[in-house]
Amino acid sequence: MNTRSPVALVTAAFLIACSVAAPEPEIGQTEQGAVLLAPFKANLKDKLVTSMQSGVDEAIAVCNTAAPAIAESLSVDGVVMGRSSHKLRSPVNAAPDWVEPAIEGYLAGKSEPVAVELDDGRRGYVEPIMMQPLCLTCHGQELQPDVAQKLAELYPEDQATGFADGEFRGVFWVEY
Ligand code: HEC
To answer: Is residue 21 situated within a structural domain?
Structure first.
């Protein structure tokens, strides 16, 4: 008998369809954290790239207000997220305590995401942020005088300059 009969094909198609429709296994903690952070990362990058086209002044103003606003708008239903660093520009971005060990790890050369169980039974997830050429304008070693001045006005305690391309800059974190 021909094993590639229409019946066998239909059966195979049915089995494939069924396996696709079957309930998905529960997403792992790392993946869930990454999924929660994805729109934050995409939104920020989008805002940064668009605003840079209108000049650095405009981009700094956007970073100043848009970054905290985006983080806040995505922090709903017990989910809280943000960015932080060992060298902060904005004191508002100070890390929650549980994020500190992850930052230490990245400073020591680690590069993997970190997933932790928090004291209250919720979960935490951290990803490193590395410097890219685009970031040098506002976080690099040689800032244009007008950029340096604008940053000094807005962030008198700014520590987030002097970075090189590829260097560890900070983290994205999320609690859920
Ligand atoms: C136009 C200037 C500008 C550019 C370009 C820029 N940033 Fe920033 N960055 C800021 C400002 C202003 C803040 C503080 C406001 C905020 O976003 O919370 C900031 C804050 C941050 C923070 C939060 C921690 C902290 O220090 O307060 C991280 C992390 C960060 N930037 C990483 C980057 C990376 C990575 C890039 C490149 C992809 C980049 N930035 C590009 C201006 C800039």
So the answer is: no
